[in-house]
Amino acid sequence: MTTDSLSQTQHKAKQRKEYSNSNAADHLRGANRTKSNRLRSPLPEGRGTGSTGVLGLLQPGEWVAAETRPLPGVGLGKGASSEEDDNNHENAAIHKEAARILTVKGFYVGCSVSELKWLRFLGKGVLCQLVRYLGTGKSTSWEDGGWGAWDEAELQEPEEEESASRNQRNYWLQECVLSLSPTNDLMVIANEQKAVFLVPKWKHSDKGKEEMQYAVGWSGSLNVEEGECVSSVLCIPLASQKRSSTGRPDWTCIVVGFTSGYVRFYTENGVLLLAQLLNEDPVLQLKCRTYEIPRHPGVTEQNEELSILYPAAIVTIDGFSLFQSLRACRNQVARAAASGNENVQPPPLAYKKWGLQDVDTIVDHASIGLMTLSPFDQMKTASNIGGYNAAIKNSPPAMSQYVTVGSNPFTGFFFALEGSSQPLLSHVALAVASKLTSALFNAASGWLGWKSKHEEEPAQKQKPKVEPATPLAVRFGLPDSRRHGERICLSPCNTLAAITDDFGRVILLDVTRGLAVRMWKGYRDAEVGWIQTVEDLHERETEKMDFSPFGNAQGPSRVAQFLVIYAPRRGILEVWSTQQGPRVGAFNVGKYCRLLYPGYRIMGLNNVTSQGWQPQTYQICLVDPVSGSVKTVHVPFHLALSDKKSERAKDMHLVKKLNTLLKAKTSDPDLIEAEAKELILDIKYPATKKQALESILTSERVPLSSLTNITQTLMDNLKKQELECVDEGLLQFCANKLKLLHLYELVSKLNSQSIQKDTSPSDTDLAKLLRLEEKDFHRLQTLLENYKKANTQTTVQLADEKDDVLSVKMFLEYLEYEKDVINVKNMEDGEYVALGSFFFWKCLCGESSTEEMCHALESAGFIPQILLSLLLNLWLSKEKDILDKPGSVSCLHTMLSLLSKMKVAIDESWDTQSVSPWWQQMRTACVQSENNAAALLSAHVGHSVTAQIIDSVTEKKFSQIIVGSDTESWEALSLDTEYWKLLLKQLEDCLILQTLLYSKVSKRTKRVSSLQTEPLGRLSVKKLLEAGKGGIADTVAKWVFKQGFSPLVLNLTQQKHNTDSTEESVEMPTSIFLEEPEADAGLETILELLQLAYQQFPCSLEVDVLHAHCCWEYVVQWNKDPEEACFLIRSIDHLRCIVNAHVQHGIALMMWNTFIVKRLSSAAYLMDKVGKAPKDRLCRRDVGMGDTAMTAFLGCCSDLLQTLLEADVSSDEMQAPVLDTEDAWVSVEGPVSIVELALEQKRIHYPLVEHQFVLCTILFAIMRFSLKSVKPLSLFDSKGKNAFFKDLTSIQLLPSGDMDPNVLSIRQQFLVKVVSAAVQTLCSSQKAKEVSEEELFPFEKGKNWPTLAVDLAQYLQISEDVIRRHYVCELYSYGMDHLGEEAFLQVTDKEVLASQLLILAGQRLAFALLHMQTKEGMELLARLPPTLCTWLKAMDPQELQNVKVPIATTAQLVNKVIEHLPENHGQYGLALNLIEAVEAISS
């Protein structure tokens, strides 16, 4: 540093008090008059004078911007207490001097100091209590602390303290050891043996607002050894190891150094974790270094460490080792507190101890970290140490560099080679009070655990062993025998250091070269710190032909370092740009503050965890004990740049300040307007001016008048400049925005001017306006009324905001000027409607002048096509409001007529034989709209206006035609008119269909599937035109599925429509229409709507077509949720309702191939594999449905194939249908309809379908009766198995001829099982009459299983008579003789059956005589013939399913046996004896 610069600095320092308020402006070189005048006002000490307060209210873990109202210079965010108002004139002079230095061409944006409001830690009374407790200012004993009222209101100060010296009271903080965590969550203040831990808490301030303040978290004495005092404190936040909060602070460790040489580690609650005696000399200083990501690849990555300075030694503890040990100790303390019996040894600590030699005294140090010399520096160092012949290693060695300050030398440089000393391992003794024993004190490592309550230990305990230090000689230094160093502060980039000495100097040291590069004089007792500012890439100036690495926005962000110097004797805080830069800020802060610069952040991070979440930590702060507040300093990056480079950065900084102004909670719009004007005029670059103006225009807090004034001011300013200097783009931008603002003001004015509403037009007037006959108009009203009722049932209208209100911000965002024409930007539908509502809603409601609005919009530059689009979007979106306001139709007619008369609306070359793009635009909007009522009304209005314009054109063209009284109804024909008529028919059809879809039954007692509750989509003409020929029927089928109507309702409604019969002839109970028996009150209305739909769509909703689509819809929905078996059953019902066999055949075959065959094959193979009815879990795994659903599925498969077989037979007797389309819908395009696909299907191979039907029935029987030991595929030979699940239209090789006797035996056994199970089920259902069979199995639809078994026997080559005989025997076995007598008649071989029934009768009689053991029975048994007795004793009654059968019934059975047994039969005589015995018993 040159002598001139030093003397200049000293000269300014001496003249500090000579500046006054009157002559301060003379020192502002180059400042304009406005800023000079503004700086003359006195400013209280601490009042904000910076360009902006960037850092304000600080929340835990984040920075929040706070707005201050500063002056152009440097300044503070918030004022200090009123006690410092005496220094106002001196403070103002200092501000002016700072502004003089920093003024550049009459413009300046500077740094600022902002109060961290939540760090306002203590009130006035608490400050006094803190002074008394810590023993500062005057001597006090421990008992005088009195900490019981920390959380109370302000305490009353004793009278003797009121009379004490003010300076003595304010200097108490200078005597304390102070540390604040970089994360702002813990502050430690210690003095001698006592310490206070302060933590932030929400409290009520003096003004009654809740704010974050520091409160006492813990207080007490920290000394353990007798006479030791606290000499240094650090608060180190430790990173969290949890996945959810990786990289964030978890807890804060307090490291305390004592004069006894001990270093102890505490938690935030004052719990001692561990202690260490590394040296028996007092601890002078504790410093920490945490991980920082290297900015460049060549920068050496520094390890985390904690360095401890002793008078003649330095100890460095590895950060990773310390982090792990502290975590382990904290966890152990927590476990011990919970259980009291767990003791886990944490990992050892790694540290190094260096004995510093060749130095007289050391008072402070800085650990630079690892460094690697360049080859030149390596050779230079080797020559200096070893001389000319020194040996040079191939690779430069890595060294740890330490810099100390003190005396002789004033600054010493030490270099410790890596590997020259092995790290010492120290075992950690845990701080658990219940686990401490004397063995811990004898540990060779020297680490000691301590009790959390700091109880005194026995006096006989031994001090731990202290390891000797490794000698480390000073390499070189800055010798100055008279100068004594006081403090050293290392810069964040580890290249510079600031040193203070006892001569009142601050020296800037280049630690890499070992040179003092700059010196400041006049800073006695100064405290120093650093601020590192990263460049915002958006503020970077991009210049042409700039090929530097930082010439484009893609380059890395630059970093600037500023030195902060606090001079307590002058009460001033200064910010200097390093290395040779000027002073960029100066602040009045008081004379009793402490400057805190930790120089570290969060311990425990690495190159991975530090990138995920950036820790919000402060760099430097100032603690003011007078006001009880903590302030931080913010310096903009551009202050480190030269004038040329900083202009763009200044502009961007002004933009930031403008944004802060717009976000501030200021209620005075005039103040915002004035400041915004000043800021936007101060910006230099046109692009930045445009950006600033856009920020203002997009602000919702600036009123319209202010926006107009600001834009007008900027535009006038641009016009005053020279023509060459004016940016045409910016000028045009201002002009366009000004036009839009004027348009917004005009439209708002028109909307606010309410006109007298006309009376609502009558129906006759509306009919005449729309050119409709009275009959057609009333029909239209009826349709709209039905639509409105149905729509209100299905939807709930929310309360909308005002329709004609649109903010200026949104208005400017929606519109843009281009070549004097206003264009609407691409927006969402809601935004488009909002803009149209702002223009036209008042006019449509009849509350504003339609003519004036159209004229205003046309004059502003809107083309009619855009206005028409806005109008139609608004009209179609406000359907509910329009239906409630019939008069809006008349307003729409007027609006549309005015728009059509605008220039370029309708092409002049348009004639009646061509299509006008104007009307085509309107028709397209109606076709695409899903609001059918509004679309129909707008189409009627469009048709009317079109006819009106065509009439006027025709009259001009054929004016010679004299229209007489007989030509009043004459109407000119045109192509547009025909298109309107077609659209009206389509919209009417769509409206009727939509009304039907809105209608629904109000009572649904049965469980409704979630698939049936999904809302139906809204219809539009476009959707129906693109849905294909089956689109209309498909839409109605979806509605039928949602309502759950029975297929019968469609048939009856169609029948009523076709026959047009009276109500009596078609009147049916309403319960048949629904799935549940309850009748619905609104069912009649639904039937009328359905009948109306049939009238509108006689072809599209033909009964077979509708049933086909309903069938397909149900099976599609069943496929989505196979558990809903009722859907598949209902699908089969609709299939059976199809009259035409060709359609029925095709639909059934498509269902089989698309949905059925794959699941059926899975079910068949599963059942064959397990050999029985599978469990629910297996069914879900292989088939995708539960066992109950699979049972119904198999029954439906059987019904489907049976229907397919019947349709194949019937199709030979009828013709295929001809599919027609309504005239209005002949232009439909889209997918082929289901019915068309069905008619294209091939014919089935009847024997193959029959073969498949047999398998389905077998599978159904197995699942229905839960049969066991049955493999369904084993009932068929190899040919039969191979034919299953093949294409039903193909020719397959089927079984023929005689079957294997083994297979026949298996088949007969299966059919017998089925009949037995069916009879058992029948018997049990009759016993439990409260639950009918149909309720248990609704899918059976009254199946007669015995008859089905007989039919299967015929196909399976089993004697049908065998199955019938078994059926009769089973019925008699279950005691259902009345059913057995009926089935007896169907048996062919009655003689064999009679012999079988004879055994049943004998079993019944044996039970009555032998097992009942009655006296009468015994007597009768004695009278019976011996042959009969022997035969009865051989009978087993247990083979009977029901033995409790009356004797009379058995007598009838024996009579029937005798009747059918021939006399020559071997058992005829036995039967005669049996009848005699039965008659004897019954008598």
Structural description of this entry:
This protein has 1483 residues and is of the alpha+beta class. Helix content is 44%, strand content 14%. It contains 50 helices and 36 strands. Strands 13, 14, 15, 16, 20 and 22 form a six-stranded mixed sheet that branches. Strands 3-4-34-33-32 form a five-stranded mixed sheet, with no helix packed on it. A hairpin with a 4-residue loop joins strand 29 and strand 30. The longest helix is centred in the last third of the chain and has 30 residues, at 1141-1170. It is flat and about 150 Å long. The N and C termini lie far apart (144 Å). The N terminus is likely disordered.
Rg over C-alpha atoms, rounded to the nearest angstrom: 51 Å
Class from helix and strand fractions: alpha+beta
Which term fits the overall shape?
flat
Helix content: 40-55%
- The count of β-strands is 36
N- to C-terminal distance: 144 Å
User: What's the helix count?
Assistant: 50
Beta percentage is 5-15%
Major β-sheet, in short?
Answer: 6 strands, mixed
- Overall average pLDDT: 79
Spans of at least 5 consecutive residues whose pLDDT stays below 50 are 1-109, 116-125, 137-164, 429-460, 541-553, 795-801, 962-969, 1061-1079, 1330-1339
